[in-house]
Design goal:
Residues 183-362 form the Phosphodiester glycosidase domain. The protein has two domains: 3-110; 122-361, no CATH class. Helix content is 36%, strand content 25%. It contains seven helices and 20 strands. An eight-stranded antiparallel beta sheet has the order 1-2-3-16-15-17-13-14, covered by helices on one side. Strands 4-20-5-18-19 form a five-stranded antiparallel beta sheet, covered by helices on one side. Strands 11-10-12 form a three-stranded antiparallel beta sheet, with no helix packed on it. Strand 6 and strand 7 (199-202) form a beta hairpin. The radius of gyration is 40 Å and the shape is elongated.
């Protein structure tokens, strides 16, 4: 309730008894007669004086005077409250303005940082911007290969997910098929796989919707796990126990080899992966300091090592683009980038490969 209205109502309740007494005194014409024997002699004069018109008039005047003082006091209090309410509203407006300014100032470093990393990638060829995410597509033209970069800012936990091929363990479908089937805006191939019994299974530890698809497998050799946690942060590396990985609160993720970058520093590339093959189509995932994600997809004509990029060249690109941590995903004929519902790259198989895991992005 408005403070002024509340005060007026309080004052009205306070003076109502006095108004009732005054009304009764003014309107009453009856008197009560008592015998002289009922009072001592000296009291009769006092009672008579009290019943006189002069006494009634004096009482009414006093009541009216009190009411006048109460009304003046109420007006003064009302004016004071009105000023306090005005001051309160002005203070609130000032605080809101300060908060808004502070929030804008806090965002400035992030905006400057984003502008800097975007400038390193060049001018976006296409952008998807919604309440869930902002995804920007860039073209890469290097001396020995061509490719694509997709920088993604996840605004909500609904912006990105990982899907199994046809939503089942051992199932497989193309990234474009997964994008279309689940209504995604973009998609990238995820972890490695192994074939068996006519089915295609994700390699090693795989998590979908916070659940292990086929149990936990400790990291071995050059294998690593990479995924997203509940805070939309990239989680990656080698995990020796399920408890260690559980502590990261991962929502989804897949496994492959090898780790390329840690805290902006190149990681040693195992000899096997330097030569088998030397060049190939590649898919890489990385993150920035502000938790934006960077996906690099490089084309190649075949998988015999004569075209595409080396893993060392992918490391150079990650550093050049300002990435923090970088991980090599499945490559070769698996490398696929779908943006705005369309296939962007040129898979080396001549057609898209059916895969068991896909990273998907939703408007």
């Amino acid at each position: 309730m408005n403070p002024v209205k509340q005060l007026n109502r309080m004052m009205l309740l306070a003076v109502t008894p006095f108004l009732g007494i005054l009304f009764w005194l003014l309107m009453s014409s009856s008197t009560i007669e008592l015998s002289e024997a009922a009072f001592p002699e000296e009291s009769v004069g006092a009672a008579a004086q009290a019943e006189s018109p002069e006494g009634e008039s004096s009482t009414a005047e006093k009541l009216l005077a009190s009411l006048g003082e109460a009304e003046a006091s109420a007006k003064q209090t009302s004016a004071s409250l009105k000023k306090q309410v005005e001051l309160y509203n002005k203070t609130n407006a000032s605080i809101a303005s300060i908060v808004k300014t502070a929030a804008a100032q806090a965002e400035r470093p992030l905006i400057i940082y984003d502008n800097n990393v975007t400038a390193k990638l060049g001018k976006p060829a296409a952008t998807i911007n919604s309440s869930n995410l902002r995804a920007q597509l860039f073209y890469i033209n290097a001396q020995n290969f061509s490719g694509y970069a997709m920088k993604v800012k996840l605004k909500t936990d609904k912006a990105m997910d990982m899907a199994l091929g046809k939503d089942k363990f051992g199932g497989a479908e193309t990234t474009l098929s997964a994008v279309q089937r689940l209504g995604a805006a973009a998609g990238v191939n995820a972890g490695g796989f192994a074939d068996g019994g006519g089915k295609r299974y994700p390699l090693s530890t795989t998590i979908v919707d916070g659940e292990y698809v086929n149990g936990f497998e400790a990291s071995y050799a050059d294998l690593f796990f990479v995924g997203l946690n509940e805070d939309n942060e990239l989680v990656g590396g080698k995990f020796t126990s399920k408890e260690e990985l559980d502590a990261e609160h991962v929502r989804f993720g897949a496994s492959f080899v090898p780790v390329l970058l840690k805290n902006g520093v190149k990681q040693p590339i195992p000899v096997k992966w330097q030569t088998s093959p030397a060049r190939a189509p590649r898919t890489v995932v990385a993150n920035y300091k502000d938790d934006q994600l960077l996906f690099l997809v490089v084309d190649g004509y075949d998988e015999n090592g004569s075209s595409g990029a080396t893993l060392e060249e992918m490391q150079i690109l990650l550093q050049r683009y300002g990435a923090v941590d970088g991980y090599n995903l499945d490559g070769g004929g698996s490398s696929t980038l779908v943006f705005n519902g369309k296939l962007i790259n040129k898979p080396s198989d001549g057609q898209m490969r059916a895969l068991p895991t896909h990273f998907l992005f939703f408007r």
